[in-house]
């Protein structure tokens, strides 16, 4: 039986997509997220999020700030503690459908959801180049988006809201496919393992660029979802069986 290693823990329904195809699956979290200590800008209007983790960190900070604000007896509202009506007025720009869904479910208005950082950056430079942006991101964020914004003189401030922690594990088993969901996930895996001839299935082009540093045996999912990564792996392994 062919085997698949997922570098992110899967839901029961996601695991069943693999098991139902006749493959075994091992799963673990190759990375962990730690919220950073940061301050919300006083000026919040156009917000950029490149991941769900950035949105989660932002929401967590809003809740923290509101809790502190509610403990203050005077009635002056802190500018950095937006209320629900203000949230509805934010204009959000993000990457990926899951990030967009998280924003929408929390009452935010999403102006643009792009497939990758370059697409989002060029959209902003073409449509909103006169606005000021707050870019919420992780400490290990890629350089494409801020580089492009700087090249086109778009005003923005970058706020580091979370750190990525690598959780490396060593595997003696040789897998037929590896599921990767971020460049950090690949870095975590190769710290104690080798890709060798195993197929690396990547969630997007950014993750694939990291995989390409270590192997030529990689493929990219059709969409930036876990289900799409699984579907790509199943299709590739089934093709190997037929060949």
UniProtKB/TrEMBL annotation:
Gene Ontology MF: a single term: uroporphyrinogen-III synthase activity
Assigned GO CC terms: cytosol
Superkingdom of the organism of origin: Bacteria
CDD domains per UniProt: HemD
An example Gene Ontology biological process: uroporphyrinogen III biosynthetic process
SUPFAM superfamilies: HemD-like
Signal peptide (residue range): none
Residue span, Tetrapyrrole biosynthesis uroporphyrinogen III synthase domain: 18-230
InterPro entries (alphabetical): 4pyrrol_syn_uPrphyn_synt_sf, 4pyrrol_synth_uPrphyn_synth, UROS/Hem4
PANTHER family associated with the record: UROPORPHYRINOGEN III SYNTHASE, UROPORPHYRINOGEN-III SYNTHASE
Protein name: Uroporphyrinogen-III synthase
Species annotation: Leeuwenhoekiella aequorea
């Amino acid at each position: 039986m062919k085997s698949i290693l997922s570098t992110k823990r899967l839901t029961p329904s996601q695991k069943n997509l693999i098991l139902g195809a006749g493959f075994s699956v091992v799963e673990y979290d190759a990375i962990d997220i730690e919220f950073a200590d940061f301050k919300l800008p006083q000026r919040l209007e156009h917000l950029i999020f490149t991941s769900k983790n950035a949105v989660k960190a932002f929401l967590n900070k809003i809740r923290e700030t509101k809790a502190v604000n509610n403990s203050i007896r005077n009635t002056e509202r802190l500018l950095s503690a937006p209320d629900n009506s203000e949230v509805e007025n934010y204009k959000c720009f993000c990457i990926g459908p899951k990030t967009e869904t998280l924003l929408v479910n929390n009452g935010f208005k999403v102006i643009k959801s792009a497939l990758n950082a370059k697409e989002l950056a060029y959209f902003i430079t073409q449509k909103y180049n006169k606005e000021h942006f707050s870019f919420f991101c992780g400490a290990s964020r890629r350089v494409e988006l801020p580089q492009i914004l700087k090249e086109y003189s778009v005003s923005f401030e970058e706020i580091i809201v979370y750190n990525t922690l690598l959780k490396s594990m060593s595997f003696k088993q040789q897998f037929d496919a590896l599921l990767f969901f971020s460049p950090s996930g690949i870095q975590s895996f190769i710290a104690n393992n080798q890709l060798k001839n195993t197929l690396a299935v990547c969630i997007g082009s950014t993750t694939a660029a990291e995989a390409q540093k270590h192997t030529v045996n990689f493929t990219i999912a059709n969409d930036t979802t876990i289900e799409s990564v699984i579907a790509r792996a199943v299709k590739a392994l089934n093709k190997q069986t037929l060949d």
